[in-house]
Design goal:
This protein has one domain: Nuclear Transport Factor 2, Chain: A. Strand 3 and strand 4 form a beta hairpin. It is of the alpha+beta class. The chain is globular and about 45 Å long. The protein has helices at about 5-20, 40-60, 65-70, 80-85, 155-160; strands at about 90-105, 110-120, 130-140, 145. It starts with a helix and ends in a 7-residue tail after the last helix. Helix content is about 35%, strand content about 25%. It is built from 5 helices and 4 strands, in the order H-H-H-H-E-E-E-E-H. The protein has a 4-stranded antiparallel sheet, sandwiched between helices.
Amino acid sequence: MNFTRLVILCLAVTSFVLSTYYPADCAEPGKKVSSEEGSPSSKRSEALERRVQEYWNLKIHDDLAKAYAYEDPDSLKGVKLTDYIKKTGSGVRLLGAEVGNTEINGNDAKVTVILRYLWTFTSEAPEKGFKTPFFDFWTYRNNNWYHIYRSASKSTFETHLKDPAKK
């Protein structure tokens, strides 16, 4: 099998795995869970959407030191900033992120994020990159929303099939 076919096969398998283990409803970007405008829940929802977009913009611009501050400290136990930077985003160049549907349940939230990205290990890719929707989990504490960090080194079953919002 030549290298190009191998890369295409790897990309196809990876896309399948991402869509299987990062399932997401393909909600319209910016779609909100219903709440009355101006209500406390609406303000929290708007704050969540703003915080999610800020977080992903930092990751897109490779400002991982600032993105680290958005991570929930409890989910980062034992992960130093240097390790976080080393483990985050290798092999992928993020091009864009759209916040989709947000579901808030108490102090936990599940957000659909639609990422646009390119693989860095091959030149065989669509010009505008790949698009993959997935669930992103957040928690509210100390009057702010924090991303629930999931290490890439953990197994798929440990990190993606368990909903951290359901403690």
